[in-house]
């Protein structure tokens, strides 16, 4: 089988390497960090959430972005400073609005397909990633948000996902620890949560057992098409591979440009906090069921017994990984308001850059040139979709290789 380089060892790169290795492909996994899953796959919200498959190409997103521009703590913060990258991305985002329903349904289908693969891999490789199958509860503070969610639920149902409306009383039964006034909610019992960093690290170890050559701590400096393959340069060294799969998150745009492709990934910054539940009272007061609060655009996941992850916000500010206190503060306040019995003395903040494409669908499959493939641009759903898109790109690559060999 041909030699393939997978560029990037986040959740999409590691799952891609694993899916290829399981098919007998000779894989080299290349990552600029010393370990797998050290960027956006490090501390996300933890949700494996088909129920969060709605794409953002909707007028409500535009209205919220404009309304919140003056708020430094806004759930969606659009910095007004222009750049060609930002302007071109938003132009394509607007152009994709007519496909909102179709793309939401397609995303839900991918998310459901991903579950089967991810769960099977974790079992086969004995990966403990704090997986919790308690469902996800979406909560709404007003009638307008709840009624809009009914329309989203109809689209998700077309994609094969069932979620049910719940009253405030039923919400308390699902998650007794939740405090506050809510109009209603939607509960998806088939969704689950888990630690993306633990899973990706465990699957990276499994890749090594399958013969994947892992090159960590090295930077790809150039990519060039050559003799039907792709030459990958790392500093002074270069290697000719029969194919490459670009899974490089926000770096995918620059890598694609080297190979003649336009992959308009934009870095959308998100934040998280991990609350350490060191005392019995905090563990009892913290939620067991994963939540998504529509008003604040925050999600929470219980990771094991002693950690609560809260994540969210979207910040359009280019390649900027700064952790800002004014962006972390709303996450802390949400915990204090919704779960007042949780001690927030010990909290670890984090920020990461989601690789988002304008139509909110990942780019999966071949590029223009022979031997070039992509599995990137998953945005806020990398953890949810990666296992499915890894299988998709691996299947296409192996089929193309087999056809070329005949």
From TrEMBL:
Which cellular component, as a GO term, is one annotated location? Answer: cytoplasm
Superkingdom is: Bacteria
* Gene Ontology molecular function: any one: oxidoreductase activity
The protein in question is named D-amino acid dehydrogenase
User: InterPro entries annotated for this entry?
Assistant: FAD-dep_OxRdtase, FAD/NAD-bd_sf
Key word Oxidoreductase present:
yes
Keywords, ordered alphabetically = Oxidoreductase
Instruction: Specify the FAD dependent oxidoreductase domain's residue ranges.
Output: 3-395
């Amino acid at each position: 089988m041909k030699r393939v380089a997978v560029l990037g060892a986040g959740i999409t790169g590691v799952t891609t390497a694993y899916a290829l290795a399981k098919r007998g492909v000779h894989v080299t996994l290349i990552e600029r960090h010393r370990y797998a899953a050290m960027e956006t796959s490090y501390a996300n919200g933890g949700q494996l959430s088909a129920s969060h498959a709605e794409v953002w190409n909707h007028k409500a997103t535009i209205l919220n972005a404009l309304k919140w521009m003056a708020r430094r703590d806004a759930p969606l913060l659009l910095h007004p400073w222009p750049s060609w990258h930002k302007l071109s991305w938003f132009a394509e985002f607007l152009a994709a609005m007519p496909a909102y329903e179709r793309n939401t349904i397609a995303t839900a289908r991918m998310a459901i397909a991903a579950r089967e693969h991810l769960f099977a891999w974790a079992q086969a490789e004995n990966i403990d990633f704090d997986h919790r199958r308690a469902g996800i509860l979406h909560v709404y503070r007003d009638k307008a948000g709840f009624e809009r969610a009914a329309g989203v639920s109809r689209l998700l149902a077309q994609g094969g996902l069932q979620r049910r409306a719940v009253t405030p009383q039923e919400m308390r039964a699902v998650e007794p620890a939740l405090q506050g006034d809510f109009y209603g909610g939607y509960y998806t019992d088939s969704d689950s949560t888990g630690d993306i960093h633990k899973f990706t690290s465990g699957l990276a170890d499994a890749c090594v057992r399958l013969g994947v050559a892992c090159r960590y701590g090295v930077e790809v400096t150039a990519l060039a098409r050559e003799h039907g393959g792709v030459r990958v340069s790392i500093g002074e060294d270069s290697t000719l591979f029969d194919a490459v799969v670009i899974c490089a998150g926000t770096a995918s745009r620059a890598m694609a440009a080297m190979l003649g492709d336009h992959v308009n990934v934009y870095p959308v910054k998100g934040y998280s906090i991990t609350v350490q539940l060191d005392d019995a009272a905090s563990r009892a007061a913290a939620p067991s069921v994963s939540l998504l609060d529509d008003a604040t655009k925050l999600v929470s996941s219980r990771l094991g017994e002693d950690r609560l992850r809260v994540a969210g916000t979207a910040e359009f500010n280019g390649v900027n990984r700064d952790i800002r206190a004014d962006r972390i503060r709303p996450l802390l306040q949400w915990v204090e308001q919704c779960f007042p019995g949780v001690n927030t003395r010990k909290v670890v903040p984090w920020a990461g850059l989601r690789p988002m494409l304008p139509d909110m669908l990942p780019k999966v499959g071949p590029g223009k040139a022979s031997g070039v493939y992509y599995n990137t641009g998953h945005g806020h759903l990398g953890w949810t979709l990666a296992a499915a898109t890894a299988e998709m790109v691996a299947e296409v690559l192996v089929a193309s290789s087999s056809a070329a060999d005949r």
